[in-house]
Amino acid sequence: MSLEDVSALVEELSKFVVGLDDVKHALVLALLAEGHMLLEGLPGLGKTTLAKVFAKAIGGSFSRVQMTPDLLPSDIIGTAYYNIGRGRFEVKLGPIFANVVLVDELNRASPKTQAALLEAMQERQVTIEGTTYPLPSPFLVIATQVPGAEGSYPLTETLVDRFAVKVELRLPSEQDEVEILRRIDYIEEGAVRQVLTPQAVKSLIEAARSVYVSDSIYAYIVGIVNWLRGLQVLRVPPSPRESIWLLKLSRAQALLEGRNYVIPDDVKTVAKYALAHRVLLSPDAEAEGLTPLGLVERALREVPVPK
Known about the structure:
By secondary structure, the protein is of the alpha/beta class. The protein is 48% helix and 16% strand. The longest helix has 17 residues, at 240-256. The two termini are 31 Å apart.
């Protein structure tokens, strides 16, 4: 398995998803690091197309869950029911059992239903009536939320922390929007070429795990997170999970660059994806105009870079 396969994946995505280079980059990183992605942005920016094309290109199964206030946890993970014809209880597995799961408008679901994703995302399994069922491998959740949407429920800090990366979607440039119009028939036709297999993806994940990390890089990662922990403007200090995802995504970035070792630039590249959504500002800090991304960028400037 070579990096040419990853390049082919990005190329196939780009045929159907115009622009959004940051999003495609972060999605591949999340795949290689065995993480999940949170996308924030207005409707109609290509989130569903991206998830569908991605699933087809890696040869995986795809499911979509449209979150609504009346959705129940069992509608996502599955439920046990009594089969009268067979005279026994059986389990109907929910849409969470797919390689790529698009959870659309996550913040429209109730907190109870949102919480149903926690075990799946962290443990890669779900529990139905006391029995544990493993999820397919690879397994990737792509969740979307519309900021400030009417009738929505803010995501809990615990749930947000489960996402390896978060990316904000922006309106396309005029040039990209023209290109979307040119390709719209091709995009809607959806004739995606499979360029990977689930087994090939697992090989790439193993390759990312084997990327070498020096002691100085470990110290650099912890130094960045500790710098953020020292800020007085945070409601909650970052947990070790912040360091863990910064490490995993840095290894994936090194692999994408064709290296078997991590350098400081890898850490800097992935920091905006891994850290900003975990920097929880106090109301006073927000009123002062501080932003999570701004503080992450400041940390990268001020923490000494290993030589």
